[in-house]
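Session log. Operator J.P. requested a structure for one protein chain; no other inputs attached. Running the standard single-chain path with token output.
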Amino acid sequence: MSSQRRSSSRIQAKQKEVEEIQLRRKAEGVEAEEKSNEVEVSPVKSRKRVRRSSSRKSVVKEVVEEKETTEKKKEEVVVEGKPTKKKKKKSASDEKRELMEVWNEKMVAETENAGGALSDKSSTAKVKETIRTFNKHYLHLVQVEEERVAKEIAEFEKTNGGKKSAAKKKSRGKKSPKKDAKTKEEKHPSKRPSKRPDLKVITKMMQNNEILYPGKRIGSIPGIEVGYQFYSRAEMVAVGFHSHWLNGIDFIGKSYSKMYKLNLPVAVAIVISGMYEDDLDNAEDVVYTGQGGHNLTGNKRQIQDQKLERGNLALKNCCKQEVPVRVIRGHNSSRSYTRKVYTYDGLYKVDKYWAEKGLSGFTVYKFRLRRVEGQPTLTTNQVYFTMGRVPQSTAEIRGLICEDITNGQENVPIPATNLVDDPPVPPPPGFKYLKSLKVAKSVKLPVSASGCKCNGKCIDPNTCECAKSNGSEFPYVSKDGGRLIEAKDVVFECGPNCGCGPECVNRTSQRGLQYRLEVFRTAKKGWAVRSWDFIPSDCLQTIKGLGGRERRSKNVTYASSLLEKYNDQDSESAPEFCIDAGSTGNVARFINHCCEPNLFVQCVLSTHNDLRLARVVLFAADNIPPLQELTYDYGYALDSVLDSDGKVKQMACYCGAAGCRKRLF
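Structure written below.
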């Protein structure tokens, strides 16, 4: 906090000094101009005389008042309350240099303060938190969109349901062109285009000042290394990596003339995604087609000549001034939640440019880009989700010791591999895989929940009893097979006594395994788990336990009353339960701890309402690429584990995270 104040005062002092310089130069310019126009302006003249100075009256008035103040203070200059000697007159180059310093410090200060609480974190952590913020807004807006579509579907079916038979009878005769046109207009709401929640997120984050790097930057961006993957164009905008969700070329214009001593505009980033038919991508050497003139909504072919303006002019200026450009490659991917993935491949320099007739016969601008030397190895192949390393079948798995540890209990098999031990050892001997929780005979099960009376799928959160328990809203959105909108104290799902079926969105955690997982052996951490598929993030606000979850204003009082009920009970008299996965359990038994995890724990109730026997479900805290180890925070407090003699037990942590505590407990 103190460093920020010192930085702020330093910036303010320099800004004040620069303002005085600008006013002095403005005054000199105005005086010279007025003199040439034979209009006399003097600081000792009356205000009436100044007001008669034509259209420049407001500017001249400010200059006159500033000169009067300066005359009184010209013998001494006060800095931080202490008188000093009169400063020497600075040259124009010094004034320009100081102006640049003030501007740059201002931009750095804005960047450091971007995202509020993120200012004290590392660049990598800032990027991660910004993407989490994006996902939080995104899932909430997806929920709004799904509710809108559901409402329109209900209204559509209510309005048109009784007219279907009549319409069929009338259509037996000759078809009317007008009726056909009308029929085309009346599309079912489920087939209408969405309202693009990702674009609404960008607007919301801009309004909330949550864009990580709002000012455009030339070169690398802190916290984003070569190989970093984005799963939508909107994510790049949220971070400030590429500031437009549609255009391929991101550039800075004349408004940055004070910050950069360059001939503007210049490009800062480009996206190569196959939008233009004339692109030629050879990884290290790229021939990039300029922007403009192609059919955006049709076949993407060129339909008119391109012009040397905007992004094209910016790339030309990069070539002339040797300004590097960030290159992002986008590829189609069925495993990404947007069906696209974008990988940062490093900095490139524009080697040359030219105009030529394209494949469609129109003039296009071409730019040859060459990758800057000394950067990490090109990671374009990672765009394909490392398909070269992800096995397509169990026969291709290296170090395979078990084809399926579940013995067919899950929707997809879970193989186990060991490339560490020689000879390779299998998972713990005697381990028995169980898909569901097995309750001991001594545990008395609570009374079953009554459930909701919905039919088929739960749609209206205002009438569904289970949704009411969640604050009159559903905790999930149906996108990507079901995603948790935000972490809650407890999630109430539909259960066996509900009228809805298995396709209900409020049964998301009951659908079983959705991704291809692998149990593998590590050198220091024993067994671990990773996914062969991309896993889209749910929304994580906090994972500090049940009492630490952030409550929303709409959150249900029922869940809060449950928490208070069990928190108020005497810990000595209240029975305690634990899940013992030593010899039996499911795949989560092999998931390791990490101080910076990519999963978080959520308690879920469905068959009953006893919080002490809630199901423990793991959700994705971040977008998890294939082959990244799955981890969650075990939640041990340091020095909290004691041995039989009451002495503190310690265990080292080998998670390898940047913020690792070095101890598990």
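Operator note: The longest strand covers residues 340-357.
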